[in-house]
Amino acid sequence: MVFLYSCGYNLFLLAPSVYLLQIYDRVLSSRSTDTLLMLTIIIAIAVVVGSVLDIVRRAALSRIGSWLDHRLRPMVLTASFEYAARADVGTATECYRDLATLRQFLDSPASALFFDVPWAPVFLLLLFLVHPLLGAIGLLSAVALLLFAFLTEQATQEPLTQANIALSRSYLRFASALKNIEVIRAMGMQYGAALLVYRDAEMARRAQDVAMHRTEIILGFSKSIRTLAQILMMGSATWLILASNSNPGIIFVASLLLGRGLAPIEGAIGAWRSFTFARSAFNRLNRMLIAVASDRDARTVPQPEPNGLILENVSYVQPFANRQILAGITLRLAPGDCIAIIGPSGSGKSTLGRIMAGVVQATGGCALLGGVDISALRLCGGGRHVGYLPQDIELFGGAIKDVIGRLDGGDPGKAIDAAKLVGLHEAIMRLPGGYETDIGEGGNLLLRAQRQQLGLARAAYGNPSLIVLDDPNSSQDYDGERMLYRAIERMKSRGMIVVIITHRMGILPVTNKIAIMRNGTVAAFGDSERIYETYLQPPSRTGT
Q1: Beta-sheet strands, E only, within 381-430
Q2: Which residues belong to any copy of the ABC transporter domain (predicted)?
Q3: Which of 45, 115, 128, 403 is the most buried (most CB within 10 A)?
């Protein structure tokens, strides 16, 4: 539809040229005021209709931008989460901004210019119909402007790419600084952190300035070319009138047609920077959506059967760093099992927990929950079968019932049941707002231990088949640990598989299995009592 509106708009742009020719052909020769009046009314109507078509096509482009935003926003958000889970947070945040960049371009006048560019040859063809000489002048002028457009692309591509990279890095570092604001303030790192962000922003600004300066130089030359072309066009038209007694109106007609033919090209040169940003944004969005879509299984994923968790020869290579984190992990857990995964720092415990939770996908082997690949469950909306409590607790702001309920707007009764399961119900009911109490953005109104307890309730929401707890008692005091142990016993009684990643031996009595990890492999795995006596029990002290 936008193309059709552009066709109508550009056709009505011919109205002034037709008007001038008719004045010289009919009005001046007949000296008829009635003819002049009727021509003026017709042309005025044509101009108004053309303006309306221009308004309609701009509105249509804006609606297309709104429609794209509405349709793509959920997919872009989901894809951004996928990229963030792969430790590519920069790409995730950049692609989320790219959708806004694309929308802004479609809302801007620059987008309509590119629908006018295909009409430039039509106006040049009309110049050839007026006279071949005038057409040749118009064609040479258009070729010169196209050459300037090519030079603009070549001159600005590198600095604009550098500006994009530096600006993305600046946004990422600024977000990281805000996340660690307490550490920055406590140790007086404000200046250093601000300088780090400023350097990237300054690098982006300088690169943008270089691109803008080069564009302005080329745009200045292109305007000179257009002005010279107008002068040459009017001079040539005048010479044709003198040499062949042509219609005097061709001076103005040729000038108008040349202006209409060159205006879109010149406008595109001026808007090249915004077009380049929009094109880069579109290409990144397209690559990201294709990459994420390729990871999804188009088939319907079956519901997991209650037959436990199976890890078969699981390995994991860290993206980008190409470093082996896990190799040859094989574990089998039945419903109601509780396993403690222990080992030294850097042995791969947390990475194994993330694979079990479906946060990342194993690069080798398979991780099955109830006979279904865990990553497939996650990609197809089956995350309700898994609960996960990471080391670093991140909570969305809002009411407690919504935080526990995983923001799904479901039955509040399930949130209450999860709170009772972990022993938080009475504490929540003592709050002035109960389950409607707002915890603040990121849970900043809660203590760290309270955030960890609330994260545990969120993990247990909906009675998932598998719960992965990464260092769940790191922030708890004695009473908090006792409450955690009782919660784990309740989870086991409900048939949940509980995976505890820990380095604290005090939690081992609630487990029935232990896996010891060293250097990315399972060094020992079996019943808790046997593993504890064989590998973990301190040797008896003898002698005097």
Answers
A1: 386-389
A2: 309-544
A3: 403
- The answer on 142 and 274 residing in a single domain is yes
Shared domain for 254 and 195, answered yes or no, is yes
Q: What is the pLDDT of residue 127?
A: 86
**How many other C-beta atoms can be found within 10 angstroms of the C-beta atom of residue 157?**
13
Give yes or no: residues 291 and 386 share one domain.
no
Residues 6+ apart with CB under 8 A from 327: 315, 520, 521
> How many Cβ atoms from other residues are within 10 Å of residue 293's Cβ?
11
Query: Quick check: 298 pLDDT over 50?
Result: no
Q: Which two tokens stand for residue 15?
A: 């109205």
The C-alpha atoms of residue 357 and residue 367 are separated, in whole angstroms, by 10
Judge whether 58 lies within some domain.
no
Which CATH number is 356's domain given?
Answer: 3.40.50.300
Res. 521 pLDDT band, cuts 50 70 90: very high
Q: What are the backbone dihedrals phi and psi of residue 327, each rounded to the nearest 5 degrees, phi first? A: -150, 125
Answer yes or no: do 265 and 333 share one domain. no
Counting Cα atoms < 13 Å in the Cβ hemisphere of 379 gives 21
Residue 366 and residue 314 in contact, taking contact as beta carbons nearer than 8 Å: yes
Whether this prediction's pTM lies above 0.90 is answered by no
Q: Which residue would you say has higher pLDDT here, 294 or 423?
A: 423
Rg of the chain (C-alpha set): 35
> Residues near 83 by Cβ (< 8 Å), separated by ≥ 6?
89, 91, 92, 95, 288, 292
Residue 316 lies in a domain: yes
Q: How far does the chain reach from its first CA to its final CA, in angstroms?
A: 96
215 in Cβ contact with 221 (< 8 Å): no
Q: Are 344 and 494 in contact (CB under 8 A)?
A: no
Distance from C-alpha of 486 to C-alpha of 508, rounded to nearest angstrom = 13
The SS3 call for residue 404 is helix
- 346 and 245 in a common domain: no
Domain boundary among 295, 317, 342: 295
Please indicate, yes or no, if residue 147 is contained in any of the structural domains.
Answer: yes
For 463, phi then psi, to 5°, come to 50, 60
Helices 89-107 & 272-295, crossing angle to 10 degrees? 130
Q: What is the mean pLDDT of the chain?
A: 82
Question: How many domains does the chain divide into?
Answer: 2
Are residues 403 and 346 part of one domain? yes
In a domain, residue 5? The reply is no
Cβ–Cβ under 8 Å, residues 497 and 337? yes
Print the domain residue range for 208: 72-295
pLDDT tens digit sequence for 83-129:
666 656 666 677 777 888 888 888 777 777 777 778 888 888 888 88
Do 221 and 248 fall into the same domain?
Answer: yes
In 469-510, which residue ranges form alpha helices assigned H by DSSP? 478-493
Are residues 359 and 403 part of one domain?
A: yes
3-class DSSP state for residue 525? strand
| Residues sharing a CB contact under 8 Å with residue 91, sequence separation 6 or more, in sequence order | 83, 284, 288
Q: Are 211 and 255 in contact (CB under 8 A)?
A: no
